[in-house]
Specification:
The complex is a heterodimer of chains A (517) and B (491).
Chain A: E1 2-3, H1 11-27, H2 33-56, E2 66-74, E3 79-85, H3 87-106, H4 114-133, H5 137-146, H6 148-158, H7 163-198, H8 209-215, H9 223-240, H10 249-256, H11 259-284, H12 286-313, H13 317-336, H14 341-372, H15 383-386, H16 388-402, H17 408-421, H18 426-452, H19 469-487, H20 490-508
Antiparallel strand pairs in A: 1-2, 2-3
Helix pairs in contact in A: 1-2, 1-4, 2-3, 2-4, 3-4, 3-11, 3-14, 3-19, 3-20, 4-5, 4-6, 4-11, 5-7, 6-7, 7-9, 7-10, 9-11, 10-11, 10-13, 11-12, 11-13, 11-14, 12-13, 12-18, 13-14, 13-17, 13-18, 14-16, 14-17, 14-19, 14-20, 16-18, 16-19, 17-18, 17-19
Chain B: H1 13-35, H2 39-59, E1 65-67, E2 72-74, H3 76-96, H4 99-102, H5 110-126, H6 130-148, H7 155-186, H8 191-204, H9 211-227, H10 237-243, H11 246-271, H12 276-299, H13 304-325, H14 328-355, H15 371-374, H16 376-390, H17 396-410, H18 414-440, H19 455-473, H20 475-481
Antiparallel strand pairs in B: 1-2
Helix pairs in contact in B: 1-2, 1-5, 2-3, 3-5, 3-11, 3-14, 3-19, 5-6, 5-11, 6-7, 6-11, 7-9, 7-10, 8-11, 9-11, 10-11, 10-13, 11-13, 11-14, 12-13, 12-18, 13-14, 13-17, 13-18, 14-16, 14-17, 14-19, 16-18, 16-19, 17-18, 17-19, 19-20
The chains are: A mainly alpha (517), B mainly alpha (491).
């Protein structure tokens, strides 16, 4: 394995596969539920600790891939095992390693097949980290599809009443969308292979993203072919994000998933879609991205408004937050297809923000559901007086999600709208997106109000007790980060600045599509 | 009276070694069977025989030799496919070992019969002449007719055997008739010589699309298409697979298919490259129909054996893509696919065998309920098999499908690659249903059925799982081995 970082060891592979090793160790801890829990929590915290050097050793002014490592995996096909990190993936990797221990800790009350549950979460972490770090299309696809398997079981075995319907829908929906990406990957890999062979260059990098970025204009692809290839990737990512109108798997999956599953789903899994759009749709097909920026932005804005309206209409709290995700993820797509520095920065930052605040909301709902076993908003009321600590945290997470200045959500949404306003997407769409911000306040405050104020009913929400120390300890890191990002966002945007500037220049300098070819 | 001399034909043991050794060994096992009824002795002997046969291939691996007036060939492609067939046979014997006595089918002839069939397959894989192709097909078929009816007190097994025999006989008729027509038109039976003859036709301006020649090619392909259960010659498959003893079904679903596909590859690519546009178009349609039909009909099955039968029809469609690509990439992808499919399908049938009670051949999906609780390891193995059949990474099923679609796309069969991925999604639906049933639905209140995960069966399942993960994670080992495979054109 060739390694190009200064640390002296292949840190990215270690970060990716450490969770999987933990899962294997857990397999040998059958029947020791308590020990397994502590081990899983400790191990995932260790993974987080191992991932921290990535942040401290990250070179802010380098645009390319860092900590880059590779070996020739399947030379006959031109496939390399290749991991790398840049300003876009840095925070997503850290978000993953940060959220996973919290999700594991939140699953303390899972009594049924605990070991399997924890193993699946760790395997899920490996898959997600691989997605954010893979720099070879084949390797990326393997990780991308692999993330379906643990989540499929997490929802299907530990989920709610309609879990089987939800999990099969989740799997088939995303699988169906991804296979077209497979065709796109095969086509690109073959074209690149032929091109490299023709130029007398080594063909073992046929599926490498960097090589493809450099060569794709030499393949002699027509306008239509480029658009079809773009589409094959875009559909897969749009379903994952999810973008309206392919969002329908999300509410089902979120509502039926166990709390830890919902948290991982909302906090990290959806971000894979946004990340993929930047890494593949924009980087590989900048011309098509430019040409289609407005239609895609239109879908994003429809998603923002539609998600918001549907969220307002929900009586189930978890469903309400699930639809709010549709709305919030619309902002992220809008920011990406602004295709300028501000918009892209906002999009990446908002991915982190949404992960933190929606993750926290799902955790809070899970915690209160464990006590009351109801998610009907109508059953709640007056919790302000009964469980004040819970309500403080709920208020905090709600405000962050609404986009209150001073908290994280505001920075991200502001940057996105600034970027979109300043781009060919234009002010009309941005204005509609701004309506979405107002609507977010409407539905989230409706939720908060419904839970916190009004009359309290002991009968409908029995056995309420305030958050335990463990639960506070889970929520506190999330809330602190929300505040820190809100108050001091430059620390978080600084590492991605160089990468995103380079990307913006790359897109701006891309050869325009030749009409009529 | 001594002017009549008997000339011993020259026997090239490199070429004939693998099939001949296995055939002789099978007779030996048959004799041993008369003196002992200890099936442990028999299976040990069989496994040794398979191992030695594989070693015979390894001995001269890399050489390309043809013999017997170029009727048989020993080349890398042939040896690789033979190894896969031998591995499949060994796995079949392992999973059948405890099943046969449990079903009261404890005749020792089972073992030599399987070896006879395998020997015919090895012969078929190495055949480069229409006559040897016919001999190979018949040798494997006759053994399989008997094996299909091995559980004959059971009505379904007899029915399956008769059905297979009648339709198989019909297919053999097509094969002979096709060979006759081709011979009639070209005057040759050797595949390479047919190609030479056709190229002289081309240079003399004689039309290649002669209806009689085309009919001959079509008839041969119908016969081979029957063996691999290609749509629309698949109709026997579900009934025969359901009725035959489960290990025989497992064996037929992988080994017969592999051997017949290898013959088809040689037949099309060596003898009829001149007609490539024609057969690529026609067989492209058949491949598309096979993938679509197999996968869609499998969705409607509640009987697991029938579901796997339709799924095996669908997989024949995918393998056909490798054959049609008619390129180095295609041949290499076909070989890797055959390996992945052999391991996966045998594994899946092994799990069914572990669950099959005596006198209860009908196996419904709902019987799998709660298997995740009852025997989690078996359910885990089945999960791996189902994901691999559906082509989900990081299993062998994915890596091999990737290779197949890549070869098809490269050969400008892009529409087939697209149909392939779409039907993969359809197939995910019914493979997932098995997983859902095992892990997410609880068993009905009736008493739980026992599972028979005996030592030999567990070994077979373990080998399959390890193989699947290995091919899935390190496909390079196998793609390197199967790289640059060229079909030998012996003149």
């Amino acid at each position: 394995m060739t390694n190009t970082n200064d640390l002296g060891f292949t840190i990215l592979s270690l970060v990716v596969f450490l969770p999987a090793v933990g899962a294997i160790i857990l397999a040998f801890m059958r029947g020791q539920r308590g020990a397994a829990r502590i081990f899983a929590l400790g191990w995932s915290t260790l993974v987080f600790a191992v991932s921290l050097p990535l942040l401290f050793n990250f070179k802010h002014d380098a645009a390319g891939l860092q900590f880059y490592e590779y070996f020739n995996w399947i030379p006959d096909w031109g496939v390399r095992y290749e991991l790398g990190l840049d300003g876009i993936s840095l925070w997503l990797v850290l978000l993953t390693t940060f959220v996973t221990p919290l999700a594991i800790w939140s699953a303390w009350n899972v009594e049924d097949k605990t070991n399997n549950f924890l193993m699946l979460i760790l395997l899920q972490e490996t898959g997600m980290l691989g997605v954010f770090l893979a720099q070879d299309l084949f390797l990326f696809y393997i990780f991308w599809e692999f993330t379906l398997i643990p989540m499929y079981f997490l929802i299907g075995i530990w989920g709610g009443k309609r879990r089987i319907y939800a999990t099969v829908k989740f799997f088939l929906y995303t699988f169906a969308a991804s296979v077209f990406m497979l065709i796109g990957i095969i086509a690109l890999g073959l074209l690149n292979y032929k091109y490299l062979a023709q130029q007398g260059l080594p063909t073992d990098t046929a599926f490498q993203v960097q090589t493809l970025m450099a060569n794709i204009n030499q393949f002699g692809l027509s306008d239509t072919q480029l658009k079809l290839l773009f589409l094959s990737f875009f559909v897969a990512f749009a379903v994952k994000v999810p973008l309206w109108p392919v969002h329908t798997w999300l509410p089902d999956a979120h509502v039926e998933a166990p709390t830890a599953g919902s948290v991982i789903l909302a906090a990290v899994l959806l971000k894979m879609g946004g990340y993929g759009m930047i890494r593949f749709c924009v980087q590989l097909f900048p011309q098509v991205a430019q040409e289609w920026a407005r239609p895609i932005a239109l879908l994003a804005v429809i998603g923002i408004i539609y998600g918001a309206v549907l969220s307002y209409a929900q009586s189930d709290i978890k469903k309400l937050v699930a639809y709010s995700s549709v709305s919030h993820m619309g902002f992220i797509v809008l920011g990406i297809f602004a295709l300028n520095e501000v918009g892209l920065q906002g999009a990446v930052l908002q991915m982190i923000n949404h992960g933190l605040s929606t993750g926290a909301l799902f955790l809070l709902i899970g915690m209160v559901y464990e006590r009351t076993h109801t998610r009907e908003l109508a059953d709640y009321g007056g919790l302000w007086k009964v469980v004040p600590v819970f309500v403080y945290f709920l208020l905090f997470a709600t405000m962050a999600s609404v986009g209150l200045p001073g908290l994280n959500g505001f920075v991200g949404e502001f940057l996105i709208m600034l970027g979109a306003f300043d781009s060919p997407i234009g002010w009309t769409f941005t204005a509609f997106a701004a309506v979405g911000v107002i609507l977010a306040a409407v539905y989230l405050l409706k939720m908060f109000q419904g839970i916190a104020s009004g009359p309290f009913s002991e009968r409908r929400t029995p056995h309420l007790s305030d958050l335990t120390r463990r639960e506070v300890a889970i929520l506190l890191p999330l809330c602190i980060l929300m505040l820190v990002i809100g108050l001091y966002s430059p620390y978080f945007t600084r590492p991605m600045e160089t990468t995103i500037k380079a990307l913006e220049a790359f897109v701006a300098n891309a050869a325009p599509l030749i009409a009529g070819q | 009276m001594n002017d009549l001399t008997f000339i011993t034909p020259e026997i090239n043991w490199t070429v004939l070694g693998m099939p001949a050794f296995l055939m002789i060994w099978a007779m030996l096992v048959l004799i041993v069977d008369m003196f002992t009824s200890d099936r442990r002795v028999l299976i040990t002997l069989c496994l040794i025989g398979l191992g030695v046969t594989a070693a015979l291939g390894a001995l001269d691996y890399g050489l390309t030799v043809s013999g017997f007036s170029d009727m048989l060939v020993f080349d890398k492609f042939g040896v690789l496919v033979n190894w896969i067939l031998l591995a499949g046979t060994a796995l079949t014997l392992l999973i059948a070992f405890d099943y046969m006595p449990r079903q009261n089918l404890n005749q020792g002839e089972f073992y030599p019969l399987v070896l006879f069939a395998t020997s015919g397959m090895l012969f078929l894989v190495q055949a480069t002449d229409l006559v040897t192709i016919f001999i190979g097909v018949e040798t494997l078929s006759i053994a399989l007719y008997v094996l299909t009816g091995f559980a004959v007190p059971q009505f379904k097994s007899g029915e399956a055997a008769i059905k297979y025999l009648l339709l198989g006989g019909f297919a053999a008729g097509f094969l002979v008739y096709g060979i006759a027509l081709i011979y009639g038109m070209t005057g040759k039976t050797n595949l390479a010589q047919i190609a030479t003859e056709l190229s002289t036709w081309q240079s003399t301006g004689k039309a290649l699309d002669d209806p009689i020649l085309l009919a001959g090619v079509g008839f041969v392909l119908i016969a081979l298409g029957f063996k691999v259960s290609m749509f629309p010659f698949h109709a026997w498959t579900p009934d025969v697979y359901e009725g035959a003893p489960t290990p025989v079904t497992a064996y037929m679903s992988v080994a017969t298919k592999g051997a017949a596909f290898a013959a088809m590859l040689r037949f099309l690519n060596v003898a009829f490259p001149a007609l490539k546009p024609e057969w690529q178009l026609l067989f492209g349609l058949f491949a598309a129909a096979t993938m679509v039909y197999g996968n869609i009909v499998a969705v409607a099955q509640s009987n697991l054996k029938r579901m796997l039968a339709y799924s095996s029809i669908a997989h024949a469609g995918y393998m056909l893509l490798g054959v049609l690509a008619a390129s180095e990439k295609g041949i290499s992808a076909f070989t890797v696919y055959l390996l992945a499919y052999t391991l996966t399908n045998l594994g899946a049938f092994a799990v069914l065998i572990a669950l099959e009670n005596r006198g209860m051949p009908v196996f419904e999906l709902k019987d799998l309920r709660g298997l995740g609780k009852r025997s989690p390891l078996l359910a885990l193995a089945m999960t791996v098999f189902m994901f691999s059949l559906a082509g989900v990474p990081p299993t062998a099923g994915f890596a091999s499908k990737f290779g197949i679609f890549r070869a098809a796309w490269d050969a400008n069969l892009d529409y087939l690659a697209i149909i392939g991925v779409i039907t993969s999604v359809v197939s995910a639906f019914f493979y997932l249903r098995v997983i859902v049933t095992m892990w997410m639905r609880d068993a009905e209140a009736t008493e739980p059925q026992p599972t028979y995960a005996t030592a030999s069966l567990s070994l077979g399942v373990l080998v399959a799982v390890i193989g699947i993960v290995a091919v899935g994670l390190l496909p390079n080992i196998f793609t390197d081995l199967a790289k640059a495979l060229v079909l030998t054109v012996a003149q």
